[in-house]
Amino acid sequence: MKAAVLHEYDEHFTRDEIVRYEDVADPRIDTPSDIIIRIGGAGVCRTDLHVVEGIWRNIAGIQLPYIMGHENAGWVEEVGKAVTSVKPGDAVICHPLVTSGHCLACRRGDDMHAAESRFPGINADGGYAQYLRSGERALIKLPKTLAPKDVAPYTDAGLTAYRAAKKASRHLLPGQKAIVIGAGGLGHIGIQVLRALCAADIIVVDRSSEALALARHCGADHVVLADEGMMSQVKDLTGGKGAEAVIDFVGEGNAVAQGLEMTRDGGFYYIVGYGGKVEIPTIDMITSEKTIVGNLVGTYAELVELMELADRGKVTLTTREYRLEHANQALKDLHHGHIHGRAVLIP
Predict the structure, then answer these.
(1) What pLDDT sits at residue 1?
(2) How many percent of the chain have pLDDT more than 70?
(3) What is this enzyme's class at the first EC digit (predicted)?
(4) β-bridge pairing 66-67 and 2-6
(5) 273 touches 183 (CB < 8 A)
(6) C-alpha to C-alpha distances, 314 to 124, 163, 180, 189, 193, nearest whole angstrom
(7) Cα–Cα distance, 44 to 321 (Å, whole number)
(8) How far apart are CA 133 and CA 120, in angstroms?
(9) Cα(77)–Cα(8) distance, rounded to whole angstroms?
(10) pLDDT tens-digit profile of 78-113?
(11) What is the DSSP string of 53-76?
(12) What DSSP character marks residue 231?
């Protein structure tokens, strides 16, 4: 099969050829529950940029050469002998983690903390290819209204945004304030989820006017350009007290400190983006009673819920399509901030 393969890290993202489009061996059925997916779409994620930069080499045990791509959807091509829930030809979306289902975390539905798991595109070959090996337990059948290329980024970007917004929606009352920091690939999904699940006023902060226009389209009540006057505008919009919930899809630079400042006393700060540090004096934690919540992708059940919203048209993805052989261009465009929404590779 054809695949876009990473052969060496590029810490500063300076090479012309980041991945190499080449022939590789087809994936094979190894266990009775394995399934081979014919890829219909593979999302290009900022985590992929971090993989290229070598950030994940000691975290996930990546061995080069390696195929990225952890946001995958397509059609069932081949099934192991124990598979009964899907058949060849079925359109499916893949939960990013392939788990056995036997450990206690799996039985509780907490897939991301499974004792044993395989994460295609992170610690195993992923979907920047024509075919992918996944597992029966990871697959969700797609309704006829949804095509694989249109939903692939939901498996990480969408699911992560859904998990954080769902947590926030559980305590947001009508008229309360929710601030979303970053209206890009994850943020534009999180805005729509908040709009679908609660009646809070949604305030979106971003440094890009194009991203803020997308935020408006996705249901934001107010948008704020991240400039010198940002904190003053946010203060005015929240009555000087901050928001009951802040969802930070940036998580680096000064976004973390500003996000905590935007969170009102007794409020919740949800951290999704990463790369920075959360630094707050313990006395401030005590006196403000703010809650800081981390978010790691999401569960299988949450991906089912997100597909239900997508099927109903409550959440839609803004995507830009690239052929698989143009993976280098997609990665460069993402690195340089030229993509609003999500990029998708199509074999």
Answers:
(1) 98
(2) 100
(3) oxidoreductase
(4) antiparallel
(5) no
(6) 33, 16, 18, 10, 8
(7) 10
(8) 8
(9) 30
(10) 999 999 999 999 999 999 999 989 999 999 989 889
(11) TTTTTTTS---SSEE----EEEEE
(12) H
Per-residue confidence (pLDDT) for residue 340, from 0 to 100:
85
DSSP 8-state class, residue 126: -
Burial 283-309 (b: 16+ CB within 10 A, else e): eeeeebebebeebebbbbebbebbbeb
Q: In what order do the strands lie in the sheet with 291-294?
A: 222-225, 201-206, 177-181, 243-248, 263-271, 291-294
Residue type, 246: V
Q: Provide the β-strand partners of residue 199.
A: none
Q: Which residue has the tokens 């094979």?
A: 28
The encoded tokens of residue 102 equal 């036997």
In the chain, which residues have pLDDT < 70?
none
Peptide bond preceding 65 in cis form (omega within 30 of 0): yes
In angstroms, rounded to a whole number, what is the distance separating the alpha carbons of residues 326 and 187?
25
d(C-alpha 143, C-alpha 120), whole Å: 24
- How is residue 125 written in tokens? 């070959």
Domain residues of the chain, as ranges?
2-156+298-346, 159-294
> 159-294, superfamily in CATH?
NAD(P)-binding Rossmann-like Domain (3.40.50.720)
Query: Sign of dihedral through CA atoms 292, 297, 300, 301?
Result: positive
Neighbours of 254 (CB within 10 A): 11
Whether the Cβ atoms of residue 172 and residue 221 lie closer than 8 Å to each other: no
Rounded to an integer, what distance in angstroms lies between the CA atom of residue 159 and that of residue 305?
Answer: 9
Question: What local confidence, expressed as pLDDT, does residue 111 receive?
Answer: 84
Q: For every residue of 246-298, which 3-state class applies, written as one string? A: EEECCCCCCHHHHHHHHEEEEEEEEECCCCCCCCCCHHHHHHHCCEEEECCCC
Q: How do residues 245-290 score in pLDDT, each as one tens digit?
A: 999 999 999 999 999 999 999 999 999 998 899 999 999 999 999 9
CATH fold group of domain 2-156+298-346: Quinone Oxidoreductase; Chain A, domain 1 (3.90.180)
Tokens of 94: 């893949």
